[in-house]
Design a protein that fits this description.
Elements: H1 4-10, H2 31-40, E1 55-56, H3 68-74, H4 85-97, E2 102-106, H5 109-120, E3 126-129, H6 134-142, E4 146-149, H7 170-180, E5 187-191, H8 204-217, E6 220-224, H9 228-238, H10 247-256, E7 260-264, E8 275-279, H11 282-295, H12 306-319, H13 322-341, E9 354-358, H14 359-362, H15 372-384, E10 386-387, E11 389-391, H16 393-396, E12 412-416, H17 424-439, E13 447-451, E14 462-465, H18 483-491
Parallel strand pairs: 1-10, 3-4, 5-6, 6-7
Antiparallel strand pairs: 2-8, 7-8, 9-12, 11-12, 13-14
Helix pairs in contact: 2-15, 3-12, 4-12, 5-6, 5-11, 7-8, 9-10, 13-17, 15-17
Length: 492
């Protein structure tokens, strides 16, 4: 029988692989303050003031904490209008880790999407991809194309245990080619990992097979490489034959099967602003540089300051370090496992950049046309001050032909974890709030539009509860005068 010291040695706790040098105080609010803030924001978490948010899980885009090396690099910014030395540092980092020949810097990822779409998509084209992303699809449609979803069916089932739910369905891809012809397909859009599908990865085997089909038909592949590092980690841990390969090696191989990528550097690259388009084709690169000058800035800065490019070059190198990516994915899994243990319906397996709560299963009493995910995100903020975001019917927008709301199979609330920002204790508080909501889920009300923008409506739309004055009833049994103290106790 093992002694107490021996038993103690068997336990191995996990801790963040960094220490904290600078802190930013967080504001604690009462329930009544949050209710007022939610009304003022039109029940849209995007319209909340950040100072009214306790734990901000709205997005991992531009919200990461930079390292001491990155901050030091910021002091080495060469702000020359042309030929900044920081551009050459970034160019080298992209070549070394992603492998593409040409770099066109942009202010962020959607700048790269705009340039690529305008260059290669013609009216009447179709763009197959493994589930849409909001800004990507907008740029494709704005250029006259149509997005066609060719992701595997398991991606639309939150309970499916498939390890690579981001995979492209090869038969669906072949059918699109047969129906429309290769000449009508400017490129296949490959997302790694799939954001709207819960941060689900794509296997290397699938990437290789898709590449083979595209090469056979003369069709380009462009990678949405925003979270390709996380995808590489999942390949390392889930795909046989890659367990002894480094994340950097897997990332480089992933890119080798594609013709280029769009990148929002605000995710994997660990910076607060910036992105790039990277391509292998000389002609596309030349045309992209011309467009960059018109829409972004000179082709050697593209909307970024020199210091931003230096921070990104360093961030790219740090992003593939094994301790960093293991801790980044591990923190997401830590939150997801707590919710699963409590019976909260979430997208399984847990994805790379966040935990995605299945709002349709969470709120079956709320009709689909009352925006369940939007309602749940609003209710979570009211309950605890945790800000999440909707990834469902509001994000899906309206059908271009009928004008009707698109009702996607997945109605999700995304709890997006910024990199190197929060501790495990913040994840505990978040889990406790969601579990509490799960236990009183019948009190959550649906929403309806009071203002709907024409494009990308999830950013600026406003709502009000259906048949009630609150999206979440108090329901705690406290007297009115005690309600604020009760709310404070839940978040302290």
């Amino acid at each position: 029988m093992a002694g107490p010291c021996e038993l103690k040695r068997q336990r191995r706790s996990w801790a963040e692989p960094y220490k904290i040098k600078v802190v930013e105080p967080l504001k604690m609010t009462s329930r009544s303050q949050r209710e007022r803030a939610m009304v003022e924001a039109g029940f849209n978490t995007f319209l909340l003031n950040s100072e009214d948010v306790y734990i901000d899980l709205l997005t991992d885009s531009g919200t990461s904490a930079m390292s001491d090396r990155q901050w030091a690099g910021m002091m080495m910014g060469d702000e020359a209008y042309a030929g900044s030395r920081n551009f050459h540092c970034l160019d080298k980092a992209v070549k070394d880790f992603y492998g593409y020949r040409h770099l066109i810097p942009t202010h962020q990822g959607r700048g790269a999407e705009h340039i690529l779409s305008q260059l290669v998509i013609k009216p009447g084209d179709v763009v197959p991809g493994n589930m849409y992303f909001t800004t990507t699809r907008f740029h494709q449609e704005h250029a006259g194309g149509r997005f066609v979803d060719i992701i595997i069916d398991e991606a639309h089932d939150p309970t499916a245990a498939h390890p690579f739910k981001g995979n492209i369905d090869l038969e669906k891809l072949r059918r699109v080619i047969d129906e429309h012809g290769a000449e009508k397909i400017p490129y296949v859009c490959l997302h790694t990992t799939v954001n709207m599908g819960g941060g689900q990865p794509v296997s290397m085997a699938n990437i290789r097979e898709v590449s083979g089909i595209c090469r056979e038909h003369g069709i380009r592949i462009f990678l949405d490489a925003t979270r390709a590092v996380e995808n590489a980690y999942f390949i390392k841990t889930r795909e046989p034959g890659y367990e002894n390969r480094s994340v950097a090696e897997i990332l480089h191989e992933t890119c080798s099967y594609t013709d280029g990528c769009t990148m929002s550097g605000k995710k994997d690259c660990l910076v607060n602003i910036g992105g790039f388009l990277a391509v292998n084709d000389d002609g596309i690169a030349d045309a992209a540089r011309n467009m960059c000058v018109v829409y972004e800035g000179l082709h050697t800065y593209g909307g970024m300051a020199g210091r931003d490019m230096q921070a990104m070059a360093i961030g790219i190198e740090e992003s593939v370090e094994s301790d960093h990516v293991r801790a980044r994915i591990g923190q997401v899994e830590y939150l997801g496992e707590q919710l699963m243990e409590a019976g909260v319906p979430v997208m399984r397996p847990i994805g790379g950049h966040g935990v995605f709560v299945d709002a349709a299963a969470f709120l079956p009493h709320v009709p689909a046309d009352q925006f369940r995910a939007q309602a749940l995100a609003a209710a979570l903020y009211v309950d605890s001050g945790v800000r999440a975001m909707e990834r469902g019917a509001v994000s899906a927008g309206r059908d271009l032909d009928t004008g009707e709301n698109r009702i996607p199979k997945l109605e999700l609330v995304r709890l997006t974890i910024p990199r190197r920002v929060y501790t495990q204790a913040h994840m505990d508080v978040t889990a406790e709030s969601i579990i509490d909501l799960w236990q009183k889920r019948s009190q959550v009300r649906g929403l309806k539009f009071t203002y709907e923008p024409d494009q990308l409506r999830f950013f600026r739309a406003r709502f009000e509860p259906v048949g009630a004055d609150k999206v979440l009833d108090d329901g705690c049994g406290c007297a009115a005068s005690q309600s604020e103290a009760c709310a404070a106790s839940r978040v302290s």
